[in-house]
Amino acid sequence: MNILEAKKYGKEQLKNSPSPDLDVSVLLQFVTGFDRTQLLLKRDCNLSKEQETNFLDAIKRRKTGLPVAYITGHKEFYGYDFYVTPAVLIPKPDTEILIDQALNSLALFYSKNENKDGSIKKIPEICDMCSGSGCVGISVLKALLENDGISVNCLPRMTFVDISADALEITKKNAERLLGKGEKLNNPENLTSALLKIRFIQSNLFENVPFSFDYILTNPPYVPHSESLELLKDGRSEPLLALDGDVGSDGEYSGTEDGLFLIKRLVPKCFEHLVCGGTLIMETGEYNAEQTAKLFEKTGFKNVHIEKDLNDMLRDVTGTKPHSLAFSSIA
Ligand SMILES: C[S@@+](CC[C@H](N)C(=O)[O-])C[C@H]1O[C@@H](n2cnc3c(N)ncnc32)[C@H](O)[C@@H]1O
């Protein structure tokens, strides 16, 4: 089978996929190691026996609904290549706005905390709650290093938290892969000091997290229960735990249908674990962002606002814990 024949076969087999051309192209790149241009130029080139077997197997798996990212083990997010398995949610473009917001706010944090000699008074403490692949916290660290010129010594201390041991393993693997590379980190000393600043904690929300943070960044499960089950029917194999927002602290279905059961526990816990003046940025569904914003206000957060994503959908809710929590009392 040559590349042209493989393309034709793949597209026919995947005609029910929403993106057969793209799927076949990515799977062929995966099995051959060619890029998109090489695939066009070498279309008469025969696949080796091993490549053909791997391609037919990949097509068979994709036909079951398994996402291309789980077949190749890779997903690009915020320009970085994340390793993914069905233990973690595949990073979504909707989440990139959370990184932009965090970086904008961190730029202010750094400028407020800069001494006259350029040194930094306070290193930000950040928690990536519900970390999954680690795409949120790792992208923030990488962008600070590579785009904003923050030195390894001044990088935030990042704490990744996930309830799933398997997901946390993937967070770790991505941190080691992505923070071990890069111009600024290519010597082992720097790698060690960057990774030493990272904590990985397996925990049900903040149960095992005895720290306070300047920032909590989180993309928690927020999809209503019945919609989560419906989504999984297409064979995508993403973990229900990563999607379903209607589970209780025991992991059992709570009986609610607004996707907010976990968020209702999470928001007050975030308030407790933020320093005064600290910021919470939380991804939500376009259908429950406004209710989440009300919950932020009810909990005591100030400057609460909702940010839209690139598709103009309500996406991230942000709030600040006030500097003074004291109420004036009349004697
Ligand atoms: C929507 S995924 C987000 C993953 C990743 N941060 C992203 O943006 O792609 C939610 C993650 O929350 C984790 N999770 C679910 N319930 C949790 C809980 N009670 N405490 C901590 N993590 C939880 C899941 O294991 C999953 O990895």
TrEMBL record:
<dbReference type="InterPro" id="IPR050320">
    <property type="entry name" value="N5-glutamine_MTase"/>
</dbReference>
<dbReference type="InterPro" id="IPR002052">
    <property type="entry name" value="DNA_methylase_N6_adenine_CS"/>
</dbReference>
<keyword id="KW-0949">S-adenosyl-L-methionine</keyword>
<dbReference type="GO" id="GO:0003676">
    <property type="term" value="F:nucleic acid binding"/>
</dbReference>
<feature type="domain" description="Methyltransferase small">
    <location>
        <begin position="125"/>
        <end position="227"/>
    </location>
</feature>
<protein>
    <recommendedName>
        <fullName>peptide chain release factor N(5)-glutamine methyltransferase</fullName>
        <ecNumber>2.1.1.297</ecNumber>
    </recommendedName>
</protein>
<feature type="domain" description="Release factor glutamine methyltransferase N-terminal">
    <location>
        <begin position="5"/>
        <end position="73"/>
    </location>
</feature>
<keyword id="KW-0489">Methyltransferase</keyword>
<dbReference type="GO" id="GO:0102559">
    <property type="term" value="F:peptide chain release factor N(5)-glutamine methyltransferase activity"/>
</dbReference>
<keyword id="KW-0808">Transferase</keyword>
<dbReference type="InterPro" id="IPR019874">
    <property type="entry name" value="RF_methyltr_PrmC"/>
</dbReference>
<dbReference type="Pfam" id="PF17827">
    <property type="entry name" value="PrmC_N"/>
</dbReference>
<dbReference type="InterPro" id="IPR007848">
    <property type="entry name" value="Small_mtfrase_dom"/>
</dbReference>
<dbReference type="InterPro" id="IPR004556">
    <property type="entry name" value="HemK-like"/>
</dbReference>
<dbReference type="InterPro" id="IPR040758">
    <property type="entry name" value="PrmC_N"/>
</dbReference>
<dbReference type="InterPro" id="IPR029063">
    <property type="entry name" value="SAM-dependent_MTases_sf"/>
</dbReference>
<dbReference type="Pfam" id="PF05175">
    <property type="entry name" value="MTS"/>
</dbReference>
<dbReference type="GO" id="GO:0032259">
    <property type="term" value="P:methylation"/>
</dbReference>
